[in-house]
Design brief:
single chain; 4-stranded antiparallel beta sheet; 4 helices; about 25% helix
């Protein structure tokens, strides 16, 4: 089955934690309108028309995984060359998300996009992009001003999808709970 950039499996912080993240993203993240605050697990993912096949696979994949606590720490930076960078928050402990990712990858082997990167899967929540040192320092200062790490419980995985412009905002299509 073909993969699409209009669909993803994610973990998202609860909405009551979004505002400090969104305040930064509104200023520095060109994707703030399209994406909610999230941590990608599998992206690109399967298209919406594959829902009947995906739902049972996803439920089986997470049924044996227990909920866990995360803290979003940072800022951290991906440097892309040419003075471009992405600023992100690091989910800690990363090992819990990596275990979830590995379980999902085993259930969806066609979603091998991340294996093409030298570093493999790096759990992260992007908060902005910058071009040049001065712009990067501005974003880093804004993230540091958030203060202490945001903490939340991961107890579900969301399948999100978007349409074509102008309706190209990701929306939750399916939520599957981890074992409790």
């Amino acid at each position: 089955m073909r993969l699409t950039h209009r669909s993803a499996l994610i973990v998202a912080p609860p909405q009551e934690l979004w505002e400090p993240i969104q305040a930064i993203r509104r200023r520095y993240d060109r994707q703030v309108r399209r994406w909610m605050p999230h941590i990608n697990l599998l992206y690109p993912f399967l298209p919406e028309e594959s829902f009947p096949q995906v739902e049972p696979r996803l439920a089986a994949a997470v049924s044996q995984l227990s909920p866990f606590e995360l803290a979003l720490e940072g800022p951290r930076v991906f440097h892309h060359g040419g003075g471009r960078a992405t600023v992100w928050l690091e989910p800690v402990p990363g090992s819990a998300l990596k275990a979830l990712y590995e379980r999902l990858r085993a259930s969806f082997p066609e979603c091998d996009h991340v294996e093409r990167f030298a570093a493999g899967y790096t759990p992260h929540l992007s908060v902005g992009q910058a071009r040049g040192g001065r712009a990067l320092q501005e974003v880093l200062r804004a993230v540091r001003a958030m203060g202490r790490p945001l903490r939340f419980r991961v107890d579900r995985v969301h399948w999100i999808a978007r349409g074509e412009p102008p309706d190209d905002r990701f929306r939750v299509r399916l939520t599957v709970a981890l074992a409790s």
